[in-house]
Amino acid sequence: MLAKRIIPCLDVKDGRTVKGVNFVDLRDAGDPVELAWQYSEQGADELVFLDITATHEKRKTTLDLVKAVARQVNIPFTIGGGINELRDAELLLNAGADKISINSAAVRNPQLINDLAKSFGRQFVVVAVDTRFTDERNFVYLRGGRDKTELETDQWILEAADRGAGEILLTSMDHDGTKNGFDNVFLKQINDRIHIPLIASGGAGTQQHFVETFKQANVDAALAASVFHYGEILIPDLKRTLREEGVVVR
Amino acid sequence: MICEASCTAEKSAYVISNANNMIGIVNYGAGNIFSLTAALDRIGVAYGMVDEERDFAHFDRIIIPGVGHAGTAMRKLTESGLVEQISKLEKPVLGICVGMQLLSAFSEEGDADMLGIMPLRTLHFDGRISEKVPHMGWNSIFSTGTNTLFQDVPDGSYFYFVHSYFLEVDVNCSAALCHYGLDFSAAVQKDNFFGVQFHPEKSGKAGEQVLLNFAKL
């Protein structure tokens, strides 16, 4: 059976890991390649790198990072951040990235989704969506939840899927950072309406939260950052718990 | 294990002197092969590129990679002028993902004739299953008998799949099965021709073991 995926997310800037990482046996906590390798050894199913490098000139370091990860890590990985046109995606593909993730660039220019899917296949295109519940509805937000758009989240996700998104990474900004669990009600609403994989993000605090999102929302994958980076949840333990709860994992 | 200095995946080929346990990768322009060469580097298997017919002689084993559209891949392979030679090969050949689908007789993707090395059809998941398409992620596979390709790979091991088309099950050719809404061929074999639908280069240790097994055939 197809396994539910566990995905640690790493923020990188100028080729280095940004958020604090607290692994016991890590030589260099700022080295995304070593961290990625550690996660793959622990049984992570996939990795997401979110590139928050501010300047265009430093993007070269991101490509070097992608190449280094592709050389050393034997599981698939996605890179997001700073992808505005086909050329950006092509460079990442040739550097060894399995998928790219686009967020605000897709909102600004939805045709980008079609173009990327046509050029590289829809399996290469993850559309990341940040959502916040305001005025009784979920709206798409940009810039890490700061800028509200007029797009209703469900409508935007359906459009993105229609345009060729291969996967949706849905982050609830209301849940993100709370460690109170994923937004399973909304995730289920979305999951029931799309025919492409859905990755839950935002709110992971305990192992039980992962059990709940797989059981209640039936999402294909769950993503988290700090609970993994700080060692609050170890992936082998999480996999064991999920297995005991009847969730199919690798 | 972090071995920056010894990793040379960016090189497109090693210097080819004589065939010495090297894998030739059929280079016909069907997608990026960086991940494949990186995996071969990690397990210490030498490789080079097959660009034209005479290159086949330089290698002991051949890998046919492939991502994207099977019909397009078959067209590119035909344009490369390598088709006739591939069908005649007697050394071990491994097709990966679309490279495996090329070994079949026909693909619904582009309604295209394939190499016809195995009498199987490549079919679309759409309309045949209610699950999401593409089949993307880690799925367990079960061998249909003993196959050297899966030596030291426990039955039920997980491999990474990304595909919308699959090779049907065949009692003679299916070497391993996978289930996603229906049973399909996770791996096939006929004589010296092998194919895997999953991506061994992205399938953790199990995937590296399959590549190692192929390198030792």
Describe the protein in words:
The complex is a heterodimer of chains A (250) and B (217). Chain A has 250 residues and is an alpha/beta fold. Chain A has a single domain, classed as Aldolase class I (TIM Barrel, Alpha-Beta Barrel), CATH 3.20.20. Chain A is 37% helix and 24% strand. Chain A has an eight-stranded parallel β-barrel with strand order 1-3-4-5-6-9-10-11, surrounded by seven helices. In chain A, helix 8 packs across helix 10. The model of chain A has no long low-confidence stretch (mean pLDDT 92). By secondary structure, chain B is of the alpha/beta class. Chain B has a single domain, classed as Rossmann fold (3-Layer(aba) Sandwich), CATH 3.40.50.880. In chain B, 20% of the residues lie in helices and 28% in strands. Chain B contains five helices and 13 strands. In chain B, the strands form two sheets. A nine-stranded mixed beta sheet of chain B has the order 2-1-3-4-13-12-11-8-9. The N terminus of chain B is likely disordered. Chains A and B meet through helix 1 and helix 2 of A and helix 1, strand 8, strand 9 and helix 5 of B. Chain B: It comes from Sphingobacterium griseoflavum. Chain B: It is found in: Cytoplasm. Chain B: Heterodimer of HisH and HisF.
